[in-house]
Amino acid sequence: MIPDDAFGRPDQREQELDGRPLDEGEDTQQRVLIWGAGAIGGAIGAALIRSGVDVTFVDVAQAHVQAIRERGLQVTGPFGGPTVRASACTPEELAGQWPLALLCTKAQDTRAAGEALRPHVTGDGAVVSVQNGLNPLILNEILGPGRVLGAFVNFGADYLEPGVVTYGGRGAVVVGEQGGALTARAHAIHALLQRFEPAAILTPNIFGYLWSKLGYGSLLFATAVTDDSIADALARPDNRAMYVELGREVMRVALAHGVTPEAFNGFDPAAFLPGAGDAQAHASLDDLVAFNRRSAKTHSGIWRDLAVRKRRTEVDAQVGWVVHFGDQHGVPTPLNALLVELIHDIENGRRTLDAAGTDGPNMRALRAAMPAISGVPGVGA
Asked: In terms of Cα–Cα distance, which of 297, 287, 267, 75 is closest to 169?
């Protein structure tokens, strides 16, 4: 357990930051290690630097590290800000230990990053998984569950090029202890994240948010098999029943796993739980369409991985968890399993994305699986 004063010294709590009193546990002299300086880590880290936090970035991309060293980190977009000067290095170059690390890598890199990160966290330090997926479960095996917190983020950001990320839309930021206790360190980390997102939430149910993100993430992966924007894809009426069934599969697994899912940014998990009607699910989809139309980030990071960066996505580390726990609990997840296969086919060049505005083979394949899965008549290729 981290002592109460690890992230906030009492003699500094009367200071003010940008005219507002410091919150309990907040400390302008914090040292934070951010492992992964891409979309999530870069956007959060730049905001922390502007607020006076001592941030060190670590990233495996040498060109990105070099650009940050030479020109600083630029955050573009409607919620960006002035370029910040920052310490940056590759994992091989890093020396020293930090009391707090934010792990912001892609989910599939969690185990390798956690192993590399471990020697650089003080013995009583903490690591917060600020990623998509159930990555605290992996970090627990490396660091022990007492040193790992979970965080959920849903803001719109992308890595653009070395030294440049874009922050296109605000979204939920939530942090909490895995066991639900509202500890002093959880309060301190929450106060830290409020420097990036003032509406950040401290929760006793972080896994409820992470599972809801798996539900929304499943929908996002489905939108990414086309070139349509997130909003346009979710708005297409011919695919609505398929999106609803994807969300329902995830929520059925969450219930079987003993999780109470939490709502955020238009995703209403109750709308996809057993007993909820189609109208409720469609209303949640409408809210998600509205949320995404407000963001300057039109397409998901998944789509960007497939269409622009031509690299592996997080599908195994997100949708794969749903299929894994579905198998464990005897809850069928055939539509999510098919989605994993489609994404792998695209990653490996066996399929291409459906063209924007068309009813392509990927969406037809997902819809074709619908009648056998849910018994919905009249829904098919």
From this structure: 297
What string of DSSP letters covers 316-347?
HHHHHHHHHHHHHHT---HHHHHHHHHHHHHH
SS3 147: helix
pLDDT 10s digits, 209-258: 999 999 999 999 999 999 999 999 999 999 999 999 999 999 999 999 99
- Which residues, 6 or more positions from 318, have their beta carbon under 8 angstroms from its beta carbon? 107, 132, 133, 214, 217, 218, 221
Pairing relationship of beta strands 201-202 and 73-76 according to DSSP bridges: unpaired
Predicted structure pTM score:
0.85
- Tell me the C-alpha distance between 101 and 117, whole Å: 8
Give the DSSP letter string of 74-127: EEESTT-EEEE--EEE-GGG--S-EEEEEE-S-GGGHHHHHHHHGGGEEEEEEE
- Cβ atoms of 103 and 117 within 8 Å: the answer is yes
Among 36, 28, 5, CA closest to 128: 36
CA–CA–CA angle 130, 136, 139 (5° rounding): 105
State the Cα–Cα distance between residues 220 and 237, nearest whole angstrom.
Answer: 16
